[in-house]
Amino acid sequence: MTGRFPARDRVAVVGYAHSPVRRQADRPLGALAVETARAAIADAGLAVREVDGFVGSALLPSAGDHTKQDGVSIVSPNWLAQHLGVDPRYAAGFDGIGQLTGSVAMAVNAIAAGAADYVVLHRALHNPGGRYHANPMREAAGAQQWTVPQGFFGPLATIALPYNEYLQRYGAKREAMAAVVTEARKNGSRLPWSYWAGKPLSTEEYLAAPQLFDPVCKFDCDIPVDGVAAFVLTSAERAADLPHRPVYVSGYASGAPTRRRLPQHWPLDDILGGGAETARRLWEHAGIGPDAVDLPQVYDGFAPFVWFWLEVLGFCPPGEAHRFVADGGIDSDRPGALPALSGGGALGNGRMHGVPQMLECYLQLSGRAGARQREATVGVACHSSPHFGGAVVYSSVPL
């Protein structure tokens, strides 16, 4: 991918809907998805029959041995279209890391190419009950035979390694991470759909939480939840006739590790080096730099990702994010601060896999954030790890 995005600002987000976020929903995931998609279509001022495109990612975001069943534990774009009674011209699912980034790219490209006029993009999350990281393995084969016997498996070990490296390399303290998590929970507590609505977290509560995988504690991890979000996208020309202010897609980028590693072995240098390349692609694609962004929404499925994203995107020098955040640099209530978690993120909403970041960009840039409304014109929504995910640039006016 080289040069500025040819379809920059030619496609816009024009409506949305979000289900309540629950640890376990009282209705099947498919029923929630159909209801949420209908609400998003109506919010965009459209009828279901006008929608001719569906995109999404049906990845089941859960560890352990869980069955994938369409409409129950996952919701594919084709399943959603069928149960809305639509025979779409375009339906596609993104299969990879960075689910929302990939889904947005597919929707934008389909509309820009004329494959569809109105596209519903959805993310439906189901996290079964029980111990989330219970390991059903009886033997470790392949590359995992070298890691599992030593206890190195699952995402907690994956993130604990670079987190420890960062603490040791840059003289950071685990106490500094409290500023990340309490900021996310403060903002999430203000959202009626959030799992943590009305439940902010104090620094004392954070520091008293048990560690799960040194130095990762319980509150450094987003809680597994059930929930659905849906967005409607169309061309900039059609968006002008719809009821809400359009939010334009100005560019996107994704990345994946290139170095051969053992399973889930993510050294800090891989994350920061790969993330710097993801950021370079992003700024080149959108034709801007970090100085143009006033609403960055960094991914925080695990708290250390916030430090990593702030640095690779260029908002902090290398090794300085822990000081920047601890000094109030992302406090959304502080004038002049960088509101990097103003939408609550995953830590403040629940494990909605990048939805909080995309939704906050849409709400703020479309002027629909209500009492939380900020002055912002350019947002960035990040998803997953900087070296194993992606980001999308949104704008309230064509760049």
Automatic annotation (TrEMBL):
InterPro entries: Thiolase (IPR002155), Thiolase-like (IPR016039), Thiolase_C_2 (IPR055140). Residues 277-381 form the Thiolase C-terminal domain. One of its GO terms (molecular function) is acyltransferase activity, transferring groups other than amino-acyl groups. CDD domains: SCP-x_thiolase. This is Thiolase C-terminal domain-containing protein. It comes from Nocardia aurantia.
